[in-house]
């Protein structure tokens, strides 16, 4: 046999397609005009190109047939022998260009192809693509791969038109074998279950996004973990389907065979609760009581914050107890208080109506509103009664001191002594005594008339009047010629503190409504 241009020919025939000559160039008449421009600018369509290829193929077949006819005429019976030789050859060999499952089987016999398929199966492997570019390979041995001759290759050969070989020997066909191979399903499943992707050492479980507290104590959403845990049943189903189709590769990513977290970091519930947590924990409310401060911050509020998985809420039922606690700590109205006298003695002065007293209901409502609206800041309580300040036993530096035993009065302004004078206080009887305690000046009036003849039995005009305990107060007493000593014992007032005229004016100018008067 001699091989010419990729064809197998009998030894006794030396056939060249170039021997079949067409018309000489000189015999071809060209149309007038510039053909170059046409070639450059006119592109044949795809359909036109296909037609040209079919015409070229047909022309080659015709040329070959004519050659064979000529040879047959020249050789007689020898020409038929050539035709018969090729007919018989292509009844057992595939035409050039024939493929089976994408493999070129030109000029091969059925047996050769079957052996090739068997050999190919022994080299078969299925590459399994996993997450992050990881791959695993299942070999032919792993899955028990085998070839079962189902006659498909024979059918392909029988479908080849060997009688008219001269028409088709340059035109192969494409065949796909979907059967004829098999594998051991149980063995394949066992191999799948032993894959590294199922080894717990290399498996990361998926985890839902969740709320956590960071180093600063604020809440944030911890992102989900996708992990690489596979759904065993989905993996087995996907790989077996690939083996059924004799595929060489299969992905576990598409279609998705992995387990995934159910709650992602953009989950509306998580984001809402994170913001609610941080809003509440960001509250810092301070109530100021003189030099003392009551802080309500995240550490204080934390025990009262509840997260039910849907919303984060702050229980404020404790506010009432807190405000009442502040009252017991800072209310001084009517309470006994320590007082340092003009001469440095520390005494306790009982009762009175001076000092601080929280308005409980108003302060409770105010604090609850601040908490609900997350209004951080420094605030003061709502007061039912207020003192002039927080130092010096709430008296601050401006106050009036009255000693009943010494019948003296001292008036201070900003811690400086302004007036010191003898006085006459109430006669020490139940109905006329000057009451001991710390009182606030309730009013100021100048001039004023004290008492009524029809009620008290007297009516006394004064220039300056500063009541501090009901009908008792500070005022000048122009009707008195002497002050101090023991006058009060026999000729005391009806409870007021009588003060010389020249001293009372300075006292009146010093005090204001709310100024404390300490009587002891």
Task: Output the keywords.
520 residues, alpha+beta, Ubiquitin-like (UB roll), L,D-transpeptidase catalytic domain-like, five-stranded mixed beta sheet, three-stranded mixed beta sheet, 15 helices, 31 strands, 22% strand, rod-shaped
Question: How would you sum up this structure in a few lines?
Answer:
This protein is an alpha+beta fold and 520 residues long. Helices cover 30% and strands 22% of the residues. It has a five-stranded mixed beta sheet with strand order 24-23-22-31-25, covered by helices on one side.
Write up what this structure looks like.
With 520 residues, the protein is α+β, with helices and mostly antiparallel strands. It folds into three domains: 111-153 and 178-265, Ubiquitin-like (UB roll) (Roll); 271-385, Roll (Ubiquitin-like (UB roll)); 399-519, L,D-transpeptidase catalytic domain-like, CATH 2.40.440. Helices cover 30% and strands 22% of the residues. The protein is built from 15 helices and 31 strands. A five-stranded mixed β-sheet has the order 24-23-22-31-25, covered by helices on one side. Strands 4-3-8 form a three-stranded mixed β-sheet, with no helix packed on it. Strands 6-5-12 form a three-stranded mixed β-sheet. It is rod-shaped, with a radius of gyration of 58 Å.
Strand tally: 31
Main β sheet profile: 5 strands, mixed
Q: Number of helix segments?
A: 15
Radius of gyration (Å): 58 Å
Q: What portion of residues is helical?
A: 25-40%
CATH architecture grouping of the largest domain = Roll
The CATH topology of the largest domain is Ubiquitin-like (UB roll)
**CATH level 1 name of the largest domain:** Alpha Beta
